[in-house]
Amino acid sequence: MKETRHTGDFYIRSKGRRIVIIGNGISGITCARHIRKRDSEAHITIISGETEHFFSRTALMYVYMGHMKHEHTKPYEDWFWEKNRLQLVHDWVTSIDFEQKQLQLQQQEPLQYEILILALGSKPNMFGWPGQELQGVQGLYSYQDVQRMNENTASCQRAVVVGGGLIGVEMAEMLLSRKIPVTFLVREERFWQGVLPKEESELGMRHMREHHVDLRLQTELQEILADDSGRVRAVVTRAGEEIPCQFVGLAVGVKPNIDLVRNTELEVNMGILVDQHFATNLPNVFAIGDCAEYRVPLPNRKSVEQVWYTGRMHGETLAHNLTREPVHYNPGPWFNSAKFFDIEYQTYGMVPNEWEEPVQSFYWEHASGKIAFRAVFNGKDKRLHGVNSFGMRLRHEFFDQALKENRTVEEVLVKLQEALFDPEFYEQHNHEMLQAYNRQFNTSLQPEKKKKKGLLAVLGL
Ligand SMILES: Cc1cc2nc3c(=O)[nH]c(=O)nc-3n(C[C@H](O)[C@H](O)[C@H](O)COP(=O)(O)OP(=O)(O)OC[C@H]3O[C@@H](n4cnc5c(N)ncnc54)[C@H](O)[C@@H]3O)c2cc1C
Fold first, then answer.
1. In whole angstroms, what is the distance from residue 58 CA to residue 324 CA?
2. What is the mean pLDDT of each run of 10 residues along the chain (461 residues)?
3. Measured distance CA(300)–CA(425) in Å, rounded
4. Domains 7-123+255-323 and 137-252 share a fold
5. Which CATH number fits domain 335-441: 3.40.50.1240, 3.30.70.60, 3.30.565.10, 3.30.390.30?
6. CATH code matching the domain that covers 137-252, chosen among 3.90.700.10, 3.10.180.10, 3.40.50.10320, 3.50.50.60
7. I want to staple 27 with a disulfide (CB 3.0 to 4.6 A). Which of 119, 187, 398, 419 is the partner?
8. Fold of 7-123+255-323
9. What pLDDT, on a 0 to 100 scale, did the predictor assign at position 4?
């Protein structure tokens, strides 16, 4: 059943309707909370097979490392859901009948919906390596993966992590926290080559090596070998090297988790295809978060965005659209943050791994090799394109505004004091950073003193 697509057709108001959300991650939960804030009459049900309650996926590693208990990763108390009349169903949806508007569940009775929100998340990539199904071989995505990792590494002498991105680094850090030596196989010439410029990539690699990660570049996994009991005993690389290990972490990216809706009337590509309102090709069926793919990506954005804050913004936007006059998704400048062991990494706007004239770059790195800042800008008018930072905490609002207002790199650098959380950091490093810029670009920039708030401003007048 294909229908002509008019935005109006895709929206009935949430009021009093039976809304079912599949997925209790950041996108599904944000959407549910925001619908409830604006609409006390909607019947909202959230289904997840993974856990009964919403938890922070980004904190999974800290549970394995013993820094947090699972309870501490739950942003809301368990009573929150009932109090806000958000019905939770802990079960797997096994199929969807879009014609009848009905969901089949693995354990419980079928559920009817009037509005269906698919917030199915991602799943780890597996590239069909021989031995990838062996015991002791796994990816890292879910609550169950962390439990499995606990079991799989209980008597592990050596581990191999495969993949050149952030989840690979997290896995290495997790394993090292239990004193398990890690060999990290990276297919490319350098770490996270597709994303980070050379200097940042080298900073990350140096830091991993300092933490005793045995980093092997340009090394590809060929196959995983089993012992007599069906457990992993070694990996073999493309070059034929056999590396003994009792655990293999596969961290080669994620893809939208859309098996549930494949071969149905719902249009999918890499993910579930949506317009700027998160509407799919079927009336009153929406998709948000990691599983959604924009039919037309926004300028300078990918068609699938698999990060926490975009999931939250998707949820907020869809909730708005179901309760108010629909608006287009408008996430503003790109932003992401992560950690390389103890070094914080942030990126704002567009910082490609390589660039050509007229684009220019300013890179400053502290002598310690653990603090760095890069600004990428248009060489003609100096308009800022984006920044990367390592080992410092930048204020999101500052760079969001700077990028939205098309400020120049120089306007940003002289005001950097406003962007830094840590005043000591500013005292110590900002002068050095500006001097480096002045030398490279033959300027004489001086830091602007932070404006003291006048009495009227303090009083909010
Ligand atoms: C280890 C790790 C670390 C990360 N760190 C960062 C970070 O530092 N910063 C950042 O921005 N992002 C990070 N991410 C990515 C971020 O966590 C995701 O982008 C985000 O959680 C996606 O949210 P979501 O709501 O789309 O889906 P999810 O959080 O994946 O939620 C989807 C839910 O739907 C459930 N579900 C799916 N299918 C069914 C079904 N058929 N029946 C019932 N339930 C179903 C799933 O089990 C899951 O619980 C990290 C991800 C991982 C795995």
1. 31
2. 46 83 98 96 97 97 97 97 98 98 98 98 96 97 98 97 94 98 97 96 97 97 97 98 98 97 97 96 96 94 95 97 92 93 96 96 96 97 97 94 97 92 81 94 88 53 44
3. 32
4. yes
5. 3.30.390.30
6. 3.50.50.60
7. 119
8. FAD/NAD(P)-binding domain (3.50.50)
9. 38
Phi-psi region of 23 (alpha: psi -120 to 50; beta: other; left: phi over 0): left
Contact by Cβ (8 Å): 421, 395: yes
Residue with CA nearest ligand 1 atom 53: 141
CA nearest neighbour of 57 among 144, 130, 186 = 144
* Residue 121 CB–ligand 1 contact under 6 Å: yes
Q: Ligand 1: which of 27, 34, 64, 120 to mutate, most ligand atoms within 8 Å of CB?
A: 120
Query: So what's the pLDDT on residue 2?
Result: 39
Boundaries of every domain in the chain: 7-123+255-323, 137-252, 335-441
d(CA 162, CA 183): 9
- Which residue has a Cα nearest atom 5 of ligand 1? 58
